[in-house]
Amino acid sequence: GTGAAVYRGGFSNVINPACLALGEGWRLDASGTLAQAHEDRFVPLWDSFGSYVTDTAVASNRHHRFGAGFAAAGRLPIAWRPVTAALSLTERYSFEYDFTETIRDPDSFSSPRDAVLQDRGVEIGGALRALSGGAGVALTDRLALGLAAHYAYGTRDQVRRVQDYDVAANTFREDSEHAMRGLYFTLGARVRVDDRLALALAYDSPLTAAGDTHVETTLGAYPDSVQLVPGRATVDYPRVYRLGLSYQPRTTPRTVFTVDAAYAEWSDLSDTRLPNSVLAQDTWDVRAGLEHRFYNDTVARFGFRRLDSYDDGETGASFFTGGVGFPAAGGSLDVSVSLSKFTSERGHWFAYPAEFTAAPVSRVEDMRFGLGVGFSRAF
Q1: What predicted TM-score, i.e. pTM, was given to this entire model?
Q2: Furthest-apart CA pair in the chain: how many Å?
């Protein structure tokens, strides 16, 4: 995922448009991703004397999501300096998340035993995508500048539901939808220090995504009682500063080493639907990549990523990645995999019934597995 100091075709629009100046001729890129998320939640289990025994699982969820991106870049016939323009469609933020749990009767003397009291869950879908157009120009042999404009659009859907089999009045379903639109831009610069080392800097402006909202609430005790609440909401997403480095040592096979570090000011996050300020924290997103290119143009890649959490200063995720690339159909076919596992403490999505004694937070173990496939063709 690095690219602040190296050319990524039209995808440089959203990483660092200054790197577009490195492109020669035309290039088309397409990519697809499959991500699988495992989430297991645990709470402490006490004995009848109030002593801690072990952690017990209260919910286990698996879900998948798909993503895709497309880009095109080409050198413009401008004589004074090399200028390359690009058009791309990518995902800025994905909202995909699923959580379900079943509440069973804790009374061991009830009949039937382990009767289901509630089925409840949260399903969130949608993504904020960016349609981007940009250009990069090589002002000198060592300095390149770039600018990209992005039209962000997408819809976030959320469903909160509780099916109560014991008390019908507690059953409800809430469907909410927020259609968002907004504009932002990216400025970039790249400096070639020498034939092997390059440094880069990029800046993403804040994104204000506004649009209509729609909330529909259905109460289970009164099936005909449906509340429709239309409105309008605005979400302010943070500005991002991105630093990049690329180094090509004198090695065989040919090697490229890259490092990206992105600083996002999540403390500026705001949402007009929330009565109080969002208590988010600024984050660092650091990525390092190593690429070996062999004589037959086969490529081996390895990567590492460390990502902070904007809502928990003590939680972060580490991603380990690997991939290969090889010539195919006149272009390059690339495949990569990534794996991450991290632990955090989270509040419960729903309150537990009065007869349950539960800790105020759960220990959440997350595991993420990703598979990516990309194809690029230069001509």
Answers
A1: 0.91
A2: 86
